[in-house]
Specification:
Blueprint: E1 5-8, H1 14-25, E2 29-32, H2 37-45, H3 58-72, E3 78-81, H4 96-124, E4 127-132, H5 145-164, E5 170-177, H6 184-195, H7 204-215, H8 230-241, E6 248-251, H9 253-264, H10 267-274
Parallel strand pairs: 1-2, 1-3, 3-4, 4-5, 5-6
Helix pairs in contact: 1-8, 3-4, 4-5
């Protein structure tokens, strides 16, 4: 029997890395893509099929889709849109170009990739698109405005795709993790250093007290309720293999709590809770 196939973005570490290895062990044919060739080489050395896909580069997207379909003979069962990064900083300190660049990766590239695969899904009569969002796709926290904006937009676009394609056998699914073990905080340091002039900011004292100690915490201390990346893989398996997948999958206690809070509490009450985090 032909193995089912999946294209995964952002496979170099964390959620994407665990998903790639987990699905490979379950018998899926996994195309574990990364932005950097050295990461692809490392994954190939671990037994995965891996090649470059840079969500910010349209030519890279085009080449990766062509490579995927060439390897499968023109089919693909699923896409796991996982590649993303964070740019920490208070909203008023985010330059316009910083927002352009994070939206290119976290939103525009994700949906450009979906659009390039839609003809395949339509022609074969099935497909599953799983977009990895976040608890920050429906609630906001301070100093995370850029990431929050991209994830709110991802949720809206995913809902639009689902509604527009309700008559087709193509599923559009969101996974919404809370704190999960990954490299996103460490990887976001370079974006913070590139874009945020925190020393000249009216929020300087809050950077010194709240953001910088957390951002550069190398102690390895886990966040409260943090789960390993395998917790996301468990939900991803259900989203891919269940005959009737859910539209949304929550991962970690905070995601469940925040979903209930935003539905039950007045906005001002919810704000007072979020200001403490």
């Amino acid at each position: 029997m032909t193995r089912k196939s999946i294209l995964i973005t952002g496979s170099s570490s964390g959620i994407g890395y665990d998903a790639a290895h987990t699905l490979h062990k379950r018998g899926w044919r996994v195309f574990a893509t990364c932005r950097k060739e050295e990461d692809c080489a490392r994954l190939r050395g671990e037994g995965l099929e891996s090649f470059q896909l840079d969500l910010a580069d349209e030519d890279s997207l085009k080449s990766a889709v062509a490579e995927t379909l060439d390897r499968t003979g023109g089919t693909l069962d699923a896409l796991f849109n996982n590649g993303a990064y964070a740019c920490p900083g208070f909203a008023e300190d985010l330059p316009r170009q910083a927002l352009r660049e994070i939206f290119e990766v976290n939103l525009f590239g994700q949906f450009d990739l979906i659009n390039r695969l839609m003809p395949t899904f339509r022609a074969q009569g099935h497909g599953r698109v799983i977009n990895n969002s976040s608890v920050l796709g429906f609630i906001a926290l301070r100093a995370r405005g850029a990431y929050v904006a991209t994830k709110f937009a991802m949720e809206g676009m995913t809902d639009a795709y689902r509604i527009e394609n309700h008559a087709l056998p193509i599923h559009f699914i969101l996974i919404e993790p809370g704190p999960v073990t990954s490299s996103i905080r460490r990887n976001s340091q370079k974006h913070f250093e590139k874009w945020i002039d925190w020393q000249a900011s009216p929020n300087r004292s809050r950077y010194e007290k709240l953001l910088i100690p957390r951002l550069y915490n190398e102690s390895g201390n886990k966040d409260k309720w943090e789960l390993p990346a395998s917790a996301v893989s468990t939900k991803l398996i259900h989203a891919l293999e269940s005959p009737k997948p859910k539209l949304r999958y929550f991962v970690t206690t905070p995601t469940y709590l925040m979903n209930a809070a935003r539905r039950l509490l007045p906005t001002g009450w919810l704000d007072s809770i979020l200001r403490k985090n």
